[in-house]
Structure formats: structure tokens, C-alpha cells
Predict the structure.
Amino acid sequence: MAASHSSSPFDLPTPLPDSPSRRRHAYHFSTQCATVENPSQKDQYGSSSVPIYQTATFKGVDGQYDYTRSGNPTRSHLEHHLAKISSAQHAFTVSSGMASLDVITRLLKPGDEVIAGDDLYGGTNRLLSYLKVHGGVIIHHVDTTNPSTILPLLNPGKTAMVLLESPTNPLLKIADIAQIASDVKQRTPEALVVVDNTMMSPYLQRPLEHGADLVYDSGTKYLSGHHDLMAGVIICNRNDIAKQIAFIINSVGNALTPFDSFLLLRGIKTLAIRMDRQQTSAMSVASYLHRLGFLVHYPGLADHPGREIHEKLANGPGAVLSFVTGDKAMSERIVGSTRLWGISVSFGAVNSLISMPCLMSHASIDAATRAARGLPEDLIRLCVGIEDPSDLIEDLELALLEAGAITAAPLADGGEHYIRTTASLPRAIAKLAEDVKNTGLGLRTTPRKQENREWFVSAPGKVILFGEHAVVYGVTAIAAAVDLRCYGLTSPRHDGKLSLKLPDLHNFEHTWDIKTDLPWDAVTPVLPGDVHPPTLDQKLVDAITHRALPPAARLENAQSRAATIAFLYLYMVLTHEDERPSFNFIARSSLPVGAGLGSSASYSSCVATALLLLHQRVSIPSLPPPSRGATPTDPAHVHVSHKGRRALPTEVADEVNRWAFIAEKVLHGNPSGVDNAVAVFGGALAFTRAGFGKKGGMEPIHGFKSLKFLLTDSKVPRDTKALVAGVAVRKENDPDVIEPALEAIQVISDEARRALSDLELSRESLLTGLTTMIHENHAHLVTLGVSHPVLEAIRAKTAAEPFGLATKLTGAGGGGCAVTLIPDDFSDSALRELLVGLEKDGYEPHVTTIGGSGLGILSPYDENNYPSGSDSEDASAPEKQPESLRKAFERQGVEELAPWAEGRGRWLYV
Ligand SMILES: N[C@@H](CCSC[C@H](N)C(=O)O)C(=O)O
């Protein structure tokens, strides 16, 4: 026996007697929710909470209950309560929202026609598809935002049901339930108008009041509010339908259990208060995303196309919203980067959830149908809970930042704000342009003049002074440029070929025929002025790996293979409109490779700079005119000796940095961006990873004074991933030891940052302070378990008399490099003695200065000195030309690289 409620929903007036001065009136919704009373079902003990009648059977014959499938007192209380708050005559509860729809669609028979929306919950679509295939029911999907699309499908004698969601799941479209119900009643009065009201709950919308015949709700959502039960609710006013529903539920046996009935009843008591809070926060979240420029679907926003209709039907916009980013991979990253928003299907719980419908709740709709119905693959659905809205927005902002969906932009007052990055649109336009070109419809523009100069570029490596490993947990790391550098040289060719040579990396060399050896069909170019999307184009990476790598590089050496892929990737995405420069690129490095000193980032920066110059996407400032009369021995330029620093404009540095980061992604998958930032900008910076309640970002340490350090490569290879994972395990197992160590490292980094930028601090105090901090930071790294016996041996050697120096591991540890501070008064003879001792022990020490210049480009460039084709494979190249940079560059020993490069002319640095 299914419970049914036969009195008016507003049968719980104030207890006051009706009088002319004080009218009896219905209690407000929240009062009704909290007040569970059924006058016809008084509890024998007056219990204030409805008891759980955890019983399958009831004794006796002819009693109100006999078997819980047919009826149970706990469920009756719940159904009475639901009918009351839904303005309904009848309410039924079943095992899930889908069970509700199953019960309702059992009213159909083969040949019946159902009209449903084209944006609807994946499970609903699945059940309708099942009925179409197995039940002989004809299903029409239409755009229910436009009631006139339904009219031609209303087929008297055939249309049995019109199934609506409003707002729809997940695009939050609005269907005019009242208008549609009236049209249906007029044209096909026998058809039932059924509404899935889950998104609104009876608090915000009561479709029976707008002409619906049947309303169902997934009680799992707002009604329960805590995601601790599954339930479905069906309500209606018509006795004939109620009778059939009760019959089906009893026959099928899917009525809600006594325990779940109890839980649902408990949840409903707080429905209004939860919904109020959730809805207010949802409005803030929607407005926040809307302000950033995302396309947000939420009926509370002023520009929502269905807002006016929704406001006629409902008392609020609810707490579910969705938005698109323009890039599925970016959406995946956003969803994966949130901490507070749980990645989960469903909605309506007190805790906030984030999901990608196409991968989750709506995955059962096949991709082609999703596309045909306009359900975007990059759609993110947000279900707002009761947490503090500022925490929710902060968490979302950090995720958007981390995913590259927003970026900081300067404000007129010197401050900063976040704006949406616009990676996806120009990319689509570029693709379109390519497509047009490939189909022969494009207009060919005159190709630009081929870049005929040799370009000589260089970028420094980096050393982490403080904060390594701890940086993974949100601690600030201090990184600085070292004066060991990577150098890159391009020389023009005129034979349609491209070559890469890496003499210090297993002497790798390869030449490609640009037209035939590179997988051009796999590339989506990034147009000038546009930014590369935050994620790599994996299709292109794969195509290069499988179709462009020479067998030797593919098989032999992982470093040269990765360096080649990064080079070709950048070359190809920067190429557009058939302008495919032909040249040789040689990279050399005075930095030890794979020792944690940022050699890959300095290589990436050189590749990015060289390619941007060759593709004519950046240019360097031309030499200013002479300030006085020039003579053969005096070029007469004003020249203040700043050694070229700050001569390269910030725009050039920013562009190179962006592309160097892309090359770093090819090389490392998920780099932090610190290494390439140091390689490009030089100096020193403080880096904090986003997350752990921090915004994250990099800040230059202004006023950084250059310092002398000894970098000792232990020559012991290390496994960075394993070391990072080891710290994670220790942190998990021994938080009382590891957490304080991380906190102490943050204190050291903060102090180091202050000291390094304090212009008034004496040199002596700075060096003393740094010595202490080096010792302390190393001790904490030992606690984290990332030191190694060779690093301890280097520490002991440098600390021993007569040296007395402070050393710490730098980077991942477990081998790799140690960094030793050399005070200004440390004698040359002592330094020589130390170097000899370290070399004798099998280490490779480098005396370096840190905090120096970033990216450098050789200039002024005398184009006539190295004319076109001087070193090219062009058969017509004139003979007897001055030696090109290329040959001399290749000839230098690694130690001579830096002084030789400096001697080539005037370098411009960032
Ligand atoms: N795997 C489930 C997914 C349930 S989605 C639940 C909810 N209605 C929502 O919109 O999130 C299934 O396939 O049904």
C-alpha cells in the first residue's frame, strides 16, 4: 500500500484561531520543512523525530501496513511531508531519481510518443533510448527553450508524455513549463506533462502549480543534501495517476527503505536554509566567472536568455551552474586542480562539487549525439555547497590560474587583476586559416625576406639557493642565475633544409628536408601575437617522435631525443603561411647537463630566442645613431658600461619566456616555470607554487647582489621523481617531523629573500646570514631524506680547515650538485687548493657568480661580416668569405666558450 496524502498541502496553518485581527495563514516554506507533523499518524510515545520502522512485515490482517514494500510508517511520514512542501496531493518515494522516472515511464505503452528536451540528464537520455529500442516508444528530442518546437510534434492519440527539465542539466536552459503545459493540454489533453525538478527542489519551483501532471526529483540531491542516500520522489495531484503509480511501485518493489526514508526526512528539515546559502554562493561564483569573461550558464545572471521566464516559474536560480573554457584539456586541468571542489557527479550536497558532464554524468550519451545536441566537451559543471563562498572562489581562482585559464594583467593604478587567457580562439582561427589554405582557397601573401643573418644567443643556468623540495608543499624557493650558460647559434641555409647539432650532447647531429621530413599535417600553427595553449599538442609531439626523429636519436640518447623534439615542436608551431626558414642550429653548454642546474631551461631559452628571431616574431633594438662624429677608430656611441644588461626589451623577454616554457614542457612534462624564468630574466627570484592556500607565482628579488659560489657536481646521477616521492611518503608517515622542517625552510627562504634585497644590509652581515641559512637549510633537507653520502662528503671537505665554508645540496639532492658560498675575502690560493682537492676526489667543481644576466643576444650584428650563405650548403655561396661564427663556435672547448662568446662583440642582455 503506497502512502498518499489527500489533504491540502497548506494544511498546517498557524495554531492560532482565525480572528478578524489575526488571520490564520500557512506557515512559510522553511517552517514547513522543519515541522514534521502528520495529524493522522501520531506517534504513540510522542517522539520528536520520526522513528525508523525497520521491519519487513507487520502483524495481523487488515491493518494499515502488512509489508514494507507496500507501505511503511517511516516512509508514510516522509511522503506526507513531501506532499506538504510540494503543494501536492500525493507523494511517493522510491530507491533513486532514475527509479522515479522508471516508474513514471511504465505508464507508457508501445507506440506512444514522448517529447523530451535535447539538453537533459545523461541517465534520462539512457532510459529513453532503452524504451525506444526495447519498448517500442517513439522519442523526439527538441529544444524545449522554444515551446513552438514542441507544437508540431504534439500528435493527438499518440503523444503520451512531454518530459521537461527546467533548468536543464547541464546547460541550465529554461523551458517555459507553464506555456508548454498549456499547449499540451490544449492539443493533446491525454498527454502527461512530466517535469524533473531535481535542480530546483520544491523550495524553488513547484511545477504542479504551472500545469505539470507529474513531477519527480532525485531525492539524492537537494532534498537529502548530504550525499548519504539515494532516493527518488514522485508527486502528483491527479488521483487516477497516483493510483497507477502506487500500483507500479508496489509491483516493482522499488519503494524507499525505512532507513533511507528516515535520512531523507531528516535532510528535508534543512532544505530551505541550505538552499538559501548555496544559491547565494552560486550567484557569487557565477558572477566571478562571468566577470572573468567565461561563458557561464546560470539563470541568475542578467544575460541568461531564459532568465525572465525562469523568474516567473521559480523562486531562485538554484545552485548549479556551468561554464566553458574553449579547451577540453584546459577544463580537465581546472577540474583536476581544485582542492575544495570535489570531483564528483551529482549535485545538491552541502559540499561543493565540480565535474565535466561529457566525461561524467552525461558520458552515457555518445559523443556524436552530444556534439549534435550542442553539449560542449569542455563544459565544467559547478554544484555549489554551503562552504564559505570566499574559500570556494579562491580555490577556483587558484585552479584557473594553475590551469592557465586566467592570467594576471596590470591595472592602470599599478595593481593587478586576473583576466581570461584567450588561447583557444586564435588557435581555432589559425586552424581555419590552415584549412582554407590546404583546400586551396587561401590568398597567398608575399613571403617575407628570408632571414640571412647568423644569430648568436645565450641563456644562464640556475641554482636553487633555498627551498628545494619544500617548494612542492607551497614553501617559497629562492633561485638565481649562474654564469654558466648555454649558447645557441643559427646560420642560414638556402637548400630547404634544417639541421640541429648538439656537440656536447653525444655529438648529436641531424638534417631534415623541411618539406618532406617533417609531419606538417599534424601541426596547428600559433600565429604571431597569439599565445600557445597551456597544454602541448600531443598529436604533434607524437608525430614528431614517430615520423621526424632519426633512428639514432630515437634509440640512443633520451636527452638528445627530447632536445630534438622540443626544437622541432617549436619550429613547427611557430611556422605559418609557408614561411619555413631553412637554417642550421647548434647549441653548446658550459653547464653540466642533468646536474640540476637548469641546463634544459637554458637550452629551451636559446631555442626559443633563435626561432623567434628567425621567424621574425621578435626583433632586437637597433643600434642608436652616433652621438658625435664617428672616426674609423671610434664608433662614437654613448656607452655607459652596464655590460649590456637591461638592453633587451621586456616584451622580447616575455615572449621568449613563454616559448621557453613550452619547450620545457616538451622536455619535462610539467615544469614549474622557475628555471626558464631565471634563464630568461637572470638575477634571482622567489617562487611559490600555487595551492596550499597560496596564490603562487614568481617575484624578482630586486637589488640582488651578485655572490660567488662554488658549484660542485658530485657526478652521482639522481632520480628526481623518486626523491620527491620519498619526501611525500615521509611527510605522510612522519608528519610531526616533516611539517616543522617544511615550516623552518619557509622561514629561511623568507629571511634570505629579505636579506638579498636589503640594500642597506652590510655585505658582511649578508654573508654571515647566508652562511647560517645554508647550514640550516641543508640540515632540514637531511631531515627530508634527500641528501646523499657524496653530498655530505663535499660538505665535510668544504667545511674542513682551512676552508671553513658553508655548503648545501641544491636541487633534488640524492647526488647532483652541492653549492658552497665563497666569501669575498676567501683567498685565491685557498680556492685553488679546494678545487684541486675536489677534482682529486672525482667531483667537478665550477666557480660561479650568481645573480647575473639572463638571456643574451649578440649585437650589434654586422650583417656584411657574415654574409648570406657564408656557411651554407648553397652551391652559389661566394668563396673566400670571412670565417663564420659557426665554425669557430664548434671549435671552442667547453671552458673557453664563455670568454670566446663575450669576445665576439656587444651582447645585449635582459
Ligand atoms: N554513473 C552514473 C552517473 C550518475 S550522474 C548523477 C546526477 N544525476 C548528475 O547529474 O550528476 C550513471 O551513469 O548514471
Notes: Residues 735-757 form the longest helix (23 residues). The chain has a mean pLDDT of 87. The longest strand covers residues 477-492.
